[in-house]
Design brief:
Structural class: alpha/beta
Radius of gyration: 19 Å
Strand content: 15-25%
Shape: globular
Strand order of the largest sheet: 3-2-1-4-5-7-6
Helix content: 25-40%
Number of helices: 10
Length: 301
Amino acid sequence: MSEATDHGTSEDVSDIVSENSAPEIFDRAARRVRRDRAAPGYAEHDFLRATMLDGIAERLDAVTRDFTDILDLGCFDGAFTPPPGARVARCDAGFAFAAKPGGVQADEDRLPFADGSFDLVVSAGVLDQVNDLPGALALIRRVLRPDGLFLGAFVGAGSLPALRSALRSAESERPAARLHPQIDVRSAGDLLMRAGFALPVADVETLDVGYRDLSRLLGDLRGMAAGNILAQRQPLVSATVGRTAAAFASASDDRGRTHETFQIVFLTGWSPDPSQPKPAKRGSATASLGAALGRHGQSDA
């Protein structure tokens, strides 16, 4: 069973963007196939990303400045709505998701955009499936103009505890890696800093969902392109599925619902610019979400 971890870090940005700076945790080809399979019915399973986009919209509303060129990184069905008058480029690792809103197909750690192309990059629901996350964050910073804003969200550490517990029970003798490594909020903030973002902030919100059985949960995970794409994955045989389903059901409440938890990590960072406030010393923990978002004006909060 995979434990919560980060994808590796590096102090040097030139090392971060190197193709050899991170192991291939995920199967890139399988990821593209799973995303293409999920695309036709994605609207039936988009609640998690919709929650992320709502959180990103709230954070964007707190910034009193205009954005003209925006990158929607990991665009899925193109549900992100840009501010009025802004131009938006869409990008997704899956061909079908990229094609639907007229975007380009590319992995997040292999971006095809020139440096300084955007003043806002938004990414919801994909950064937890990137092989080289430090490299992806460094590339996001590079495609931003000075004083550009990055807002991201992904499923973080502590998510899917009911499924993890059921799988441990079903495969107690020979556990296999079934779920992706997960990044905690502290590691996420550290990755932002190491990628060179100014005023980095990482915070987390919890979403609780009740499921009547395991098949509904697995259907949601497949439908949102969040199935197992680990490079070293093993088939899930029917006997294991049966034991997992029984263990999952045994955790249900008096209404027959097993509650699953999604921890959504939100990221905020600015591309460095001389006009920005100087960051506090590392480890002082004095930066706040309001300060990071409201540096161009006051938040309504």
